[in-house]
Write a structure and sequence with these properties.
The complex is a heterodimer of chains A (115) and B (117). Chain A is mostly beta strands. Chain A has no helices and 11 strands. Classes of the chains: A mainly beta (115), B mainly beta (117).
Chain lengths: 115, 117
Amino acid sequence: NAGVMQNPRHLVRRRGQEARLRCSPMKGHSHVYWYRQLPEEGLKFMVYLQKENIIDESGMPKERFSAEFPKEGPSILRIQQVVRGDSAAYFCASSPYGTSNTEAFFGQGTRLTVV
Amino acid sequence: AQSVTQLDSQVPVFEEAPVELRCNYSSSVSVYLFWYVQYPNQGLQLLLKYLSGSTLVESINGFEAEFNKSQTSFHLRKPSVHISDTAEYFCAVKPSMIYNQGGKLIFGQGTELSVKP
C-alpha cells in the first residue's frame, strides 16, 4: 500500500506563472488536507477536502489559491500568478475518515520556489 | 480556537543525554494531542498521540509524552538520545468534539533537535 504521493517534489516557477501541486492519497482514503510550511515556521492548515467537496477552506488565501479533489484522480492545489511569498513547502495528508481521532498520513511535500 | 506553543525553537544536546521538548496548548474545547517528527527534506511522521486513557504515551523508539490537563502541556521526553534523533519535532492538536471540522491539525512552530556526538 503506497503512501501519500505528492508530485512534483520540487517546483520552480517565475513570478506570475501558475503552480499545480498534486496529491494522491493513500488507497482507501477519501479525506485530504493541504498544509503550507513557510521557512522557519510550523505547518499551517490550508484546506480540507473530500471527494468532489471542499469541507473547510478557512486557511486558504482569498485570492490566487484554489483546491480540488475530483471523483477520479489526485487532489490538486493550484496557485495562480505566483509571488515570491508563495515559496514554501506544501504538504498533503490523507485519512480514511474525517473524525478527529483518525490519524492522517503525510506525503513528502512539494517545495515550491518562486524566482 | 486552538493554538500551540513550542517554547524552544532549537535544542542542542549531546548523544546519550536526556532531552525534553516543551509544548503548551490553548483550547476552549477538549483536544487530541500529537507529536510529529520531520527529518530533513521529508514529510511528517507521527511519533505518538494522546486520545484518551493513560496520560503517559510512548513511541516505539523510546520517546514518551505526558498529557497534563491542568498545565495544558504535552512535553516530549527521551532519556537518552541518539544521533539519528536529529530532526524537527512538531507538537499538534485537533479539536476532539467537532466532527464537522474533520481532522484539521493545528501545529506549533517546531523544535529543531540537534544531537551532537
